Automatic annotation (TrEMBL):
A cellular component term, taken from the record's GO annotations: extracellular space
Organism: Dreissena polymorpha
Signal peptide location: 1-21
SUPFAM superfamilies: Zn-dependent exopeptidases
Positions in coiled-coil regions: none
Name this polypeptide is given: Peptidase M14 domain-containing protein
Length: 179
């Protein structure tokens, strides 16, 4: 099965696995950062947590208007190292600020991949631990759960709002993540 297709099927399987209190709510910026940091600490040999931009020789802003970093978690055999001939994928979510689903799916995907790779969780469906290990050993996967964390926080309002239903999600859509 093609690697991109394998990732999509894994992501679908993750959606079906709810029940952990970690996934019973949406993750604001701090909670998102905590998930990414925990996964990186749990799987340090196959992950690297980094901030965009990586190379700032052109004076690109290093944080959003509201001083949030654009975070990416990389999975690879040798994270942080470009290897010629090894395919790279970057999955980006939450570009417009008011999109919750992609953000949550990428957070679950990174947790799932780490847990299955380590043997802490049984893989879903017809996958084996070997499938996940092969995927990580042969691909560099960059997961960016939020490209617009400021817009998400504006759209979400307070914790009560985004947990209990929001009527004005369009509010955060126009927020820009750059200065």
């Amino acid at each position: 099965m093609e690697l991109r297709g394998l990732l999509l099927v894994i992501c679908s399987a993750i959606c079906a696995t709810v029940g952990f209190s970690e996934w019973a709510q949406h993750h604001n910026y701090e909670a998102m950062k905590d998930v990414m940091t925990r996964v990186n600490k749990k799987c340090p040999k196959i992950t690297k947590l980094y901030e965009l931009p990586v190379n700032n020789e052109f004076g690109v802003p290093t944080e959003t208007w509201n001083h949030r970093k654009l975070l990416v978690l990389e999975f690879a055999k040798r994270p942080g190292e470009h290897v010629e001939g090894v395919p790279e994928f970057k999955y980006i979510a939450n570009m417009h600020g008011n999109e919750v689903t992609g953000r949550e799916l990428l957070l679950r995907l990174m947790s799932y991949m780490c847990d299955v790779y380590n043997g802490d969780m049984e893989p879903e469906g017809s996958f084996s631990r070997k499938h996940i290990q092969r995927l990580i050993q042969n691909t560099r996967i960059h997961l960016m759960p939020s490209m617009n964390p400021d817009g998400w926080e504006i759209a979400a309002g307070s914790v009560d709002d985004y947990q209990n239903g929001v009527t004005a999600w369009i509010v955060g859509r126009g927020q820009c993540s750059q200065h």
